[in-house]
Amino acid sequence: MSTAEKTRKQTRTEGAVKAGDGRHIFPLTQMAGIEAGTGYSTGEGPVVEGERMQCALVTKKRGTGSNPHHHPNEQWNYIVKGKLRVKVGDEPEQICGPGTLLYFPANIVHYTIATQDEDVVFFAVKDMTHGIIGIPVDPAKGSYKGAGPKK
Questions:
Q1: What is the average pLDDT across 74-100?
Q2: Residue 23 resides in a domain
Q3: Are 75 and 125 contacting, i.e. CB atoms less than 8 angstroms apart?
Q4: Is the pLDDT of residue 50 over 90?
Q5: CA dist 62 to 114, 130, 140, 145, 146, Å?
Q6: What's the mean pLDDT in 105-117?
Q7: Quick one: which of 79, 130, 84, 128 has its CA closest to 110?
Q8: Is the pLDDT assigned to residue 4 strictly greater than 80?
Q9: Is residue 149 part of a domain?
Q10: How many Cα atoms are found within 13 Å in the side-chain-facing hemisphere of 147?
Q11: N or C: which end of the chain has fewer CB within 10 A?
């Protein structure tokens, strides 16, 4: 196998599955998941990488989510189940539910947090200029795991 062939079969994100070479159909709801936002998000799910695009079926447990982060690749999220608190750039935070398509431009700070009602499932698509995991604004904050006890 040539070096070019080996490179095509490797994934950019550790734990992701590589599409192609006879692998074209992926039962996402039955596949093992990985952390989809290590260090800033509670999102987990299976990730499949093609040559130019990557897809994931991400779950965020109720009341948890991501702290502000960005990434050099564009991202689309389609909400399948549950509701998310969503903030993109300087726009006001909004509550978005099933059937909503979210667009996150490259290098724009954003976050998504599942409401307390139920877990959230969304289908994410990103280009392959970067892996699935973004860059936290404040790495010391870690992932968003709720507001904590009231004082």
A1: 98
A2: yes
A3: yes
A4: yes
A5: 5, 27, 22, 9, 9
A6: 98
A7: 84
A8: no
A9: no
A10: 6
A11: C
Domain span holding position 22: 3-141
Going by C-beta distance under 8 Å and a sequence separation of 6 or more, which residues neighbour residue 142? 39, 40, 67
β-strand partners of 135? 70
Reported as a pLDDT band with limits 50, 70 and 90, residue 37 is very high
- CA dihedral of 136, 8, 22, 47, whole degrees rounded to 10: -10
pLDDT, residue 146, reads 83
Q: Which amino acid is at 87?
A: K
Work out the mean pLDDT of the chain and round it to a whole number: 92
Q: Collapsing DSSP states into helix, strand and coil, what is residue 67?
A: coil
Let me know: does 138 contact 69? Beta carbons within 8 Å: no
β pairing state of 101-104 and 110-114: unpaired
Amino acid making up residue 5: E
CATH number of the domain that residue 40 is part of: 2.60.120.10
Q: Which residue has the higher pLDDT, 22 or 8?
A: 22
pLDDT value at residue 23? 96
Whether residue 104 lies inside any domain: the answer is yes
When divided into structural domains, the chain yields a total of 1
